[in-house]
Amino acid sequence: CPSIASHWQGASPLGELLGLAAVENDEMVGLLVAELRKDPKTDTTSAHILSLFVHPENRRQGVGSGLITHLEAHVRELGCSQMELSYQATELTTVALEPLLERLGWETPKISLILAKFDSEHIAQAPWVHHYRFPKDFTLFPWAELTPAQEERIHERQKQKVWYPESLSPFLEPSKLEPLNSLGLLYQGEVVGWMVNHRVGPDTIRYTSMFVARRFQRRGRGAMVIAESLMAQLDSDIPYYTFAVGESNQPMLEFVDRRLKPYLTSLTEAYRSLKKLGSRE
Questions:
Q1: Of 93, 118, 203, 252, most Cβ neighbours within 10 A?
Q2: Per residue in 175-212, is it b (16+ CB within 10 Å) or e — as a string?
Q3: In CATH terms, are 4-105 and 117-269 the same topology?
Q4: What confidence score (pLDDT) does residue 118 get?
């Protein structure tokens, strides 16, 4: 299934896997893979379609709709509350997948995040990357050198009052942490931000989690951390960069539009659609 390898690159399945195949004359012409994910907070289960593929010669023959319809019937019996599907926008999804979802009663797809790529040759041309200087009382340190006491303090503050979204946690995928340019930001000795990155290939670093405490967010501190992280990679022999930004992270979307967009080599929008299933009759 084309997207499965990339989906699990650096990640493990989050729930039970389901697979459906469409067969014609003993030949497989379509395949759907889904994952059942349980939300412990609501005690509900949803079915996430990870990959849907129909052989080009068998498209527009009802194979895709048949696979999704059969999946829906099965997960209804299992008590799932909804089905979800995320995908990158392409010409094929526009002309084939989106009309299919509409016919099957799915909600109108909405942008869930943007996916971007660039390289050293292009980002080296960005003037702002080379000209940031940190003001007094701010210092940077390698995130790999975060002390146990500093980590405990971050967790304590989060428990007392949520000060960063869990999606921007600096502790995601610790085994893939990129020490080259993952950085922490200190203000008067206290951790107030970070740029945590992960190696997703021999020649590619993913800029995963950038966060600066609210009181410093409109003062350019985040841009400074990003610039220092980019400079560290520019000084290395790792040529490719990638990142994703969710639709709810408006400040970062504005930053991408202002500072990064002219230097991107690829910008793709990812969409999400769902269908609520309700209770079983």
A1: 118
A2: eebbebbbbbbbbeeebbbbbbbbbbeeebbbbbbbbb
A3: yes
A4: 98
CATH topology of domain 117-269: Aminopeptidase (3.40.630)
d(CA 115, CA 239): 17
pLDDT on residue 11: 53
The structure tokens listed for 139 are 């210092």
**What's the rounded Cα separation, in Å, for the pair 183 and 178?**
10
Q: Judge whether 199 and 208 are in contact, CB under 8 Å.
A: no
Tokens at residue 95, please? 């002309």
Task: Yes or no: say if 172 and 157 are a contact pair by the CB < 8 Å rule.
Answer: no
Closest-CA residue to 239 (of 265, 273, 258): 265
Over residues 108-133, the pLDDT tens digits come to 999 889 999 999 999 999 999 998 77
CATH annotation of 4-105: 3.40.630.30
